[in-house]
Amino acid sequence: MTTTDADAGDGTAAAAARHPQEPDADPRSDVQTVTHHAETSPPAGVHGYAQQKDAHIKRLRRIEGQIRGLQRMLEEDVYCIDILTQVSASTKGLQSFGLQLLEEHLRHCVADAAVKGPEAIDAKVQEATKAIERMLRT
């Protein structure tokens, strides 16, 4: 899968409209819809990733292209090991994205909480710790 394959897509929203996603059927999954912590979150658009938003979107589109490539590989009856190699690459891409987002959260949101006082710091550290736990389970 090349970057041009991934970037050739017409965007996440259009792809989602053509291929609606099934709801998560795994009751053990603790992936939730967007949560908002009104007491501890900054206003919309002031998140730690705000300065890198365009780069993040580009990166996610590349990962989306890798996933589409997996679908094509199955349709074309590609050898199992080659598909597993692509699964590994896609997984590592998502993990790397998640770690970068976590770092930005720590640098921006947790640092911002430090100015607000000990309770805000504790809340943000606890929130980050739970996010790390979820990432480690994958």
From TrEMBL:
InterPro entries, per database record: Metal_Tscrpt_repr (IPR003735), Metal_Tscrpt_repr_sf (IPR038390)
Subcellular location: Cytoplasm
One cellular-component annotation, GO: protein-DNA complex
Biased composition (Low complexity): 1-17
Domain of life assignment: Bacteria
Annotated signal peptide: none
Chain intervals for the UniProt region annotation (Disordered): 1-53
GO molecular function annotation: DNA-binding transcription repressor activity; metal ion binding; transcription cis-regulatory region binding
Residue ranges, compositional bias (Basic and acidic residues): 19-29
Keywords assigned: Copper, Cytoplasm, DNA-binding, Metal-binding, Repressor, Transcription, Transcription regulation
Family of this protein: Belongs to the CsoR family.
PANTHER family: COPPER-SENSING TRANSCRIPTIONAL REPRESSOR RICR (PTHR33677:SF3), TRANSCRIPTIONAL REPRESSOR FRMR-RELATED (PTHR33677)
Record protein name field: Transcriptional regulator
Biological source species: Streptomyces tubercidicus
